[in-house]
Amino acid sequence: MKLKLIFLTLFFAIAQLSFAQVSFDAKVSKTRLGVNEDLRVDFVMNADGDNFNPPDFKGFTIYRQPSQSINKYNLYGKKSYAKTITFYLKPTKRGKFRIGQATIEIDGETYKTLPVNVEVTSAVQPEKNRNSDSYVASDDIHLVAEVSKLNPYLNEGVTVVYKLYVSPAVNRITGVSIMDTPDYSNFWSHTVKVPNATRFEQGEYNGQPYNYIIYDKKILYPQKTGKVEIEPLTVSVGVVVPTIRRGVFGSTRVMESVDKTIAAGIRTINVKPLPLKNRPADFSGAVGSFDFQITTNKKELAATESMEAKVLVSGTGNVTLFDLPRLSVPNGLEEYEPEHKEQLRPSQGGMSGNISDAYTLIPQYKGEFSIPPVSFSYFDLKSEAYKTITSQEIVINVNKGPDASSINNTVTTSEVNKQAVTQIGNQFRFIKLNTNLQSIGGTSFFKSTAYWVTLLTPLLAIPLFIFFGKKREERLSDISGNRIRKADKLARKYLSEAKKNLGNQIEFYIAMERALHNYLKAKLHIQTSDMSKDRIQRLLKERDVDDTVSIEFIALLESCEFARYTPSSSSAMQQDYDKASRVISSMDKQL
């Protein structure tokens, strides 16, 4: 009996001490959630306080007014108190985030919660609660990714159309915004501008009549074989829908504006490798249906007169992801670096249009010059076989100008008749040594001011030569500084075309994207068809390039892709140019 009494006494003493201690904690509804899910954060305290300061909730937005609840209860005759402040959050993007410390003052003391780590993943299939207004909204609006082909070849264009289906029961849409954009890590992607993106058309979803808009459109070129996932696009849609609640008389449903986060769902495609059998040696990765030709604007001209030879590939496929064949130019034709041009438009099988390299050629002497045939190979999707197109031989007649022999051979003089020299008079008897020369200016140059300046200037220049020589040696021995200067010069070289087009959005971002590609080709020795984002990051990591620089480089490529189809200001273009210059310079120093 005494033992039981002692136990109860200790129990109540411990309970009293625990109730007397102030606690202030942060609790989350889940520590891992999809970008299309909601998060609830409760700040719980066992005593009332003042000056509550919540954290900044970086990576989230507050989508509902915070609520507060107070519970008072009695336990073994002891009064207890619990107060909860609740925040309702929506993620703004994927990633790992930390909900920081909240603070509150209780009885003159400041208390802080512990930070809570939360991971936001790509969109997931949410649990449906049929008694919520959110479920009503989710049942009336859907985002669908329609894929043109589920079994493509490597580097074959696949079109993904994102359609937003809305039930006629929805009163209206108040807005649509992107929550999470797929990174298309195993694809080379092109964004297609969608005209009339806000105009609804009539269609069907699961056999029911729905209205829909084409919200986004992408052309993807798979860079990896096997099963490849297309990550979901996630958007936030503001809709006015009828809720499960009824009006005062129960005849009509209450309408409510709901912000609903929806995702298109993960799509999986099976990418087939290109066959190795009968693959031509000059195959550079072209996949589609193409024509190939080499043309010249002149076939007869004079020496030192310029002409243009154009290597042209036209058709449909991965037009921007392979290299054009190089023109073979005979000796005697001076060749200049070709001008690359692209005229492209999106189509069902990828990009359609043409790409060309225009060479400027200048003959040095007259004669007949032959531009030999050049072959171009591609994988034809219709016949599922490799095809090779060979151009015709082009003969250039240069009918005016010097002969090749007069340029290449040394000039010999002809024989002349030799005659004896006959001496007449004293013309060769002696050379006169004493002269009576007089100064033309009337004043003597010797010991004049000009004389001393001319004499002493080389002597005074010697210290200057020594000084500048040492500076030059210091500059040459400064390996780090030389790398910086060389990298800056290289960045300016590659970005010169983009700088010329500052203010012209489309031309600027096309030029900058081409500059970034050419830089990678020059530094990493890879073809354009191999430039997937994963491969670029892997190669840069193998070359010990900082992850930060690598991420910024990939972000620039994505920025070029995205900005070509969305409005951009001059200041934004200048910022992208400065960033590209800095990233190329940093990367070149590390490479």
UniProtKB/TrEMBL annotation:
TM region positions: 449-468
UniProt superkingdom: Bacteria
InterPro entries, sorted: BatD
Signal peptide: 1-20
Sorted UniProt keywords: Membrane, Signal, Transmembrane, Transmembrane helix
PANTHER family in UniProt: BATD, PROTEIN BATD-RELATED
Protein name: BatD family protein
Organism, scientific name: Aquimarina addita
